């Protein structure tokens, strides 16, 4: 091969590698002064997201049901360096409340740069009882409130070239798993809603980004308490998980995988060999510890 041809092949290879593997670099200053709503921030991953944002100098508006916990999180955010920190307490089974939180962002923050949708309603971990009401209730909290807040936030996000972040799950937003049927239904719905909305926005030349987070097992109190007798895997740290969500959101990634290798691999494997993923998942569960339906 002539020298020019060799160089061309090298150049094309290098360019492709650069195009696919290089990303913009994350800098904490990207979040400085940004006006951000975080839902489900009284505990777990949402609480950790609020603390990271506070350290980066953002203006945070957090929400969940427990007012006392929210007060504590707001106080810690301020001590960590948040440009401002406020809370609104309420229940996301009420769509008027969901919309109010976004409207209040206009009054409290003067606009919105990022909407982080993270809350989930209480659900049991076990065989599905067959009660459709369990699904209906969880759809309200885990899905319809996300859609409601998104619709209410879009005009402000259009103005700020802002971002929407929807926290979903590897094993239930991409892969079916047993014992979480109502929850799984709501997480699959998120993918349909947000992936389709992303495309509709792009077709209208919108500059609002949508990031869907595909998370594996994370060491929040709620998760560990409900599944540690059945799932042997070591959960990943919630602090690092929260930081990866923020980084991906700031870089406007369409999907954020954490823990990256496991989550990405299982998602890809599911497309090629779903039976294999089902088999692997079933064999990691201690189902002898699960009460019959
Ligand atoms: N932990 C894990 O292993 C995984 C988690 N995820 C996802 O990460 C996100 C966070 O999970 P995690 O931190 O573990 O969850 P937690 O259970 O720790 O936190 C849930 C949050 O939602 C709030 N919440 C619960 N019910 C309502 C309600 N009806 N209205 C308003 N707020 C409510 C809770 O506060 P309060 O009780 O005060 O209302 C709390 O702040 C979820 O979207 C989850 O699906 C995905 C994969 C794995
Ligand atoms: C194949 C294995 C290596 C990985 C399997 C990981 C599976 C078992 C992990 C990955 C994501 C996990 C669930 C999740 O998304 C969120 C929650 C919410 C919490 O309140 C209760 C626990 C629950 C349902 C987790 C249950 C266990 C799941 C399915």
Description:
Helices cover 55% and strands 13% of the residues. The protein has 293 residues and is of the alpha/beta class. The chain has one domain: Rossmann fold (3-Layer(aba) Sandwich). β2 (59-64), α3 (67-80) and β3 form a beta-alpha-beta unit. α2 (44-55) runs parallel beside α3, α2 packs across α9 (238-250) and α4 packs parallel to α5. It is globular. The chain starts with a helix and ends in a 9-residue tail after the last helix. Bound molecules: NADPH dihydro-nicotinamide-adenine-dinucleotide phosphate and (3beta,8alpha,9beta)-3-hydroxycholest-5-en-7-one. NADPH dihydro-nicotinamide-adenine-dinucleotide phosphate is lined by residues 40-46, 64-66, 69, 91-93, 118-122, 141, 167, 169, 215, 217-218, 220, 222-223.
């Amino acid at each position: 091969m002539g020298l020019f041809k060799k160089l061309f092949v090298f150049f094309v290879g290098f360019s492709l590698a650069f195009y696919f593997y290089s990303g913009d670099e994350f800098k904490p200053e990207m979040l400085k002064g940004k006006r951000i709503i975080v839902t489900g921030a009284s505990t777990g991953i949402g609480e950790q997201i609020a603390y990271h944002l506070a350290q980066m100098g953002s203006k945070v508006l957090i929400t969940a049901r427990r007012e006392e916990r929210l007060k504590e999180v707001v106080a810690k955010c301020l001590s960590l360096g948040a440009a401002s920190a406020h809370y609104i307490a309420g229940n996301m089974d009420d769509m008027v409340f969901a919309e109010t939180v976004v409207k209040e962002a206009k009054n409290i923050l003067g606009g919105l740069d990022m909407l982080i949708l993270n809350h989930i309603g209480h659900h049991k971990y076990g065989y599905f009882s067959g009660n459709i009401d369990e699904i209906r209730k969880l759809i309200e909290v885990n899905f319809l409130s996300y859609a409601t807040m998104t619709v209410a936030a879009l005009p402000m996000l259009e103005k700020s070239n802002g971002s929407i972040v929807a926290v979903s799950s590897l094993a239930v937003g991409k892969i079916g798993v047993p014992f979480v049927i109502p929850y799984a239904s709501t997480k699959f719905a998120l993918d349909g809603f947000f992936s389709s909305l992303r495309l509709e926005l792009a077709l209208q030349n919108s500059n609002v980004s949508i990031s869907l987070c595909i998370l594996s097992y994370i060491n929040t109190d709620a998760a560990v308490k409900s599944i540690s007798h059945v799932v042997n895997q070591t959960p990943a740290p919630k602090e690092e998980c929260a930081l990866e969500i923020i980084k991906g959101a700031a870089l406007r990634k369409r999907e954020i995988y954490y823990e990256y290798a496991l989550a990405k691999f299982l998602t890809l494997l599911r497309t090629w060999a779903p039976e294999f993923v089902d088999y692997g998942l079933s064999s990691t569960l201690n189902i002898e510890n699960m009460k019959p339906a």
